[in-house]
Please model this.
Amino acid sequence: MTPEGGSGLLARLSRPIASRLCLRLYQGELGVSPDSYGRKIALAVLLSSALSSVPVALLVLRLCGLAAAAPELLLATGAAALSSWAIPAYLSVRPALSALGRRRACERELPFLTAFLAIASASGIPTQVALERLRRSAFLKAFRNEAQRIEKVRRLYALHPYDALVFEARQHPSERVRDLYFSVVAAQRQGDAVPSVLRDELMKVFSHLQGTIKTLSDKFSMIASAEMIAFILVPMGALTLGTVFSSAVSLPTIVAACIGLPSITAVLLSIMIDSSLPKELTTPVPLKGFSIALAALPLGAALSAIFWVAGIPVPAYLAFGAVLLSSLAAASLYYLPMRREVSQVLAALPAFTRLVAEEVKKGSSPGMSIIHFSEARAFNQHFDRFLHRISAFLKIGVPVSEVAEAVRAPWVVKAAFELIDESERMGSEPKSLDHLSELVSSLTLCMKALSSQTRLFTAVSYMNTLVLTFTTVVAVDVIGRLFAGALGSVSISLPFGLSFMTGSQFELAAAVAYLAVIYDAFLLGVVGGKLSRGGSVADGLMPAAVCVALSIAGFLAFRELGLIRFVFGV
Model:
């Protein structure tokens, strides 16, 4: 068996893998040949198979009585063999994940690419020349890479620019991008009115965004149902059984139901939200503050354990909640000015682009229009500051694209200013910036529609937090304490090996349940805020702080002040 393949087992395994992954490797831009990548996966599969044969052989020898392999050895080798399959699994899905990332990046920039091509067409510049200018774009990075790929294909196969564009369109992972490429090439070759075709493509982009927003309500109802099941129903059932029958539901099972399942559900819901929200309408933020806020989780858990072991007369859940709440409040205050600035800058952008488009129709250049409005108009505090910095650099001859890269602003704003700069370089026609103005106005309307669709989801998280707190107190302090106090010390023979929970077991289970409520409230707030406040987990810090505060207030009212005992008469 040679490194290149031959007739060996590795070659026979790698050939079908390479042929199956060939297109995905090209779409994912991994920079590796299908043959070498197929051999890498085949080698990983062979090594994992060899490692998996070890625990199987040990188990067969143990069953046949030929060797006495310890159960610990079987468990260790089995775990190692199972984990070894993660490598070929990752190598298999890596091209698809890379292609998915490329598709999402392109679809996020697709509205601005369409507007850019419309501006170029209105200025009399063909599509292939516009794509060449796109190769130096500072903010349309995905399509800058696409333009470079098209140029490489053109040079490699000595193709006409439109043939290279069609070739890339056929291999592109995004159907929306393929449709745009095919429409533009067909319009150029048939001599149709390219600006009209691109205007229609812009309308298709807006229609797609509106359709996506309209379908979000169905997905939100599914997310709310998943939250109700994973955060309330399953933990309540586990606590009700666990605080009564210790042999039926053990403490690790309670931890898995009250902490493990909600954690997994929160991660899955976060991924679902990422795939549901249109990336064109979201603005990412740095996650440094969120990472620091997460450090409060182990710190609060350690402090709660110290309080529990030392017998300090402070509820462990209260110490954990206080640490977590203070950390979340500090991180929320860190992100609050940043998000306020983003919202104000985005709110002023539609009016600004409309004014620039009207000024260009009067004969002024886009650059001079920016300088004029920075001195003659006031929009809001944050947008005025951004505009003054842009105009200051314009006065000394620095291009807008280079200035915007050094100024803090949302990506949408920077991309819009880059298109304004490109329109000036291409010799803007009087109506060329109308496309950009329509784009920004439509995106702003879609953002408002998205906000109105998702605004109530934070309130759902608050309601679920209160329901979770109430049901936990009922399950632990009413049902569990009743059985543990009345029957825990009585010797009663129960069927199926069941036994009641003793007093010490009950106190430990109750402490774990209360800590789980605080932790689950944090997860509910993060998921609800991510969905309704901007699409980032950092946007969930403020709702998470509110949810943690609600859970603490619920414990104080229902448990410490005795409201639950008053309601149920226990």
